[in-house]
Amino acid sequence: MFVHQSSENTAKDDGAKYDSAKYNERSFSTLMRALRLSQGYFSFVLVNCNSLALRQEIVDRLQATCVQKPQQLFLPASATTLYTTIAAELDGEQPPALMLLGLESVESIDRLLVSTNLLCSEFSKTFSFPVVFWVTDELLRKIIRTAPDLYNRMTTIRFISQLTVDS
């Protein structure tokens, strides 16, 4: 099963239509649905959130809400390939979902993204769970530019930390 890109809460300007709490609640529901529909199947889910505090709040809420708790993987700054890092960490286990945290502090992020882009199809051959990328706007732009095939395979969900109002 492949979870298709959601049109809900993905555009940058969508946040202006709602207050941030309402927008984020809808995004949380979309994330829960993406994780639920991907159970037992591989998928890439990209969660765009610029606030580390908000990200932690969402991760904590997922841990409290999900019956099958997503596993968290804090990527080391020295990581150069995502596939081997995940495979080594899991050692054959298949968690309900894997949340990748710390991508913004990976020193060789371009190398990691290029290798992930090249190995996109290998992930689905080995893993049968959703892999959730937590990224900032800056990292999102880098993924789009450096790993376009990877980005095109992702379901994208956005959380906003505050409402921006046009003057």
Topology:
Blueprint (H helix, E strand, L loop, with lengths): L19 H18 L5 E6 L3 H14 L5 E4 L7 H9 L7 E4 L7 H10 L1 H7 L3 E6 L1 H10 L1 H5 L1 E5 L9
Parallel strand pairs: 1-4, 1-5, 2-3, 3-4
Write a brief caption for the model.
With about 170 residues, the protein is α/β, with parallel strands linked by helices. It has seven helices and five strands. The longest helix is centred in the first third of the chain and has 18 residues.
General description of the model:
The protein has 167 residues and is α/β, with parallel strands linked by helices. Helices cover 44% and strands 15% of the residues. It is built from 7 helices and 5 strands; from the N terminus they run αβαβαβααβααβ. It has a 5-stranded parallel β-sheet. Strand 2, helix 3 and strand 3 (98-101) form a beta-alpha-beta unit. The radius of gyration is 15 Å and the shape is globular. Residues 1-13 have low confidence and may be disordered.
